[in-house]
Design a protein that fits this description.
Keywords: DNA-binding, Membrane, Transcription, Transcription regulation, Transmembrane, Transmembrane helix. Helices cover 74% and strands 0% of the residues. By secondary structure, it is mainly α.
């Protein structure tokens, strides 16, 4: 998945714009209608033809993987932007949860798809992403000192399960906010 983004030759600006519109449209359409939505709906939302969609993404799993890769890259950029901020951990956790709200059906579908991402590599990438912000939050006394990155991944999985079958984006947002608040209450140190 990540290799495709880094090994391919540079794209023309209009081709890159089309690809970005397709990823943004897919994120919206998958959030609204689920992962099995007809791909034509995504092409229409992006304002491109079917040929452009299939030239960029041979199937829905390739499109889903591109969304997932884009999400991870955005989280890594957020972590870099707040590299010295002790509040970066909660900002990062909130951003991850927001991505889960928008992409609730994506991870289960990708994991069962024909070109499932390398889970070990993704887990390692998430642990690296969370490690620095978690250490800084712990040093500031904002997060309990015994928490490790693997615990945070478990928290994220729990919140993901809480939003998975919610009937709408608004319902997923409410469930995620409640679950995140309950989790954060458990993550802060006890005095």
């Amino acid at each position: 998945m990540a290799a495709d983004a880094h090994d391919s030759p540079p794209r023309r600006r209009d081709a890159q714009d089309n690809r970005e519109r397709l990823v943004a449209a897919a994120r919206e359409v998958f959030a609204e209608s689920g992962f099995e939505v007809p791909l034509d709906a995504i092409a229409r939302r992006a304002g491109v033809g079917r040929a452009t969609l299939y030239r960029n993404f041979p199937d829905r799993y390739a499109l889903g993987s591109a969304i997932f890769e884009h999400n991870l890259a955005a989280l890594e950029a957020l972590a870099r932007a707040h590299a010295r901020d002790p509040a970066a951990f909660t900002a990062l956790l909130s951003a991850i949860i927001e991505q889960q709200i928008a992409s609730h059906a994506l991870v289960p579908a990708l994991l069962s798809g024909p070109t499932a991402p390398d889970l070990h590599a993704l887990r390692s990438r998430m642990i690296r992403l969370l490690a620095g912000p978690l250490r800084r939050a712990q040093a500031a006394g904002a997060i309990r000192p015994d928490l490790v990155s693997a615990d945070v991944l478990a928290v994220i999985a729990m919140i993901s399960a809480a939003v998975l079958h919610a009937p709408s984006v608004a319902a997923r947002r409410r469930r995620a906010a409640r679950a995140l608040q309950l989790m954060l209450d458990g993550l802060v140190p006890r005095t």
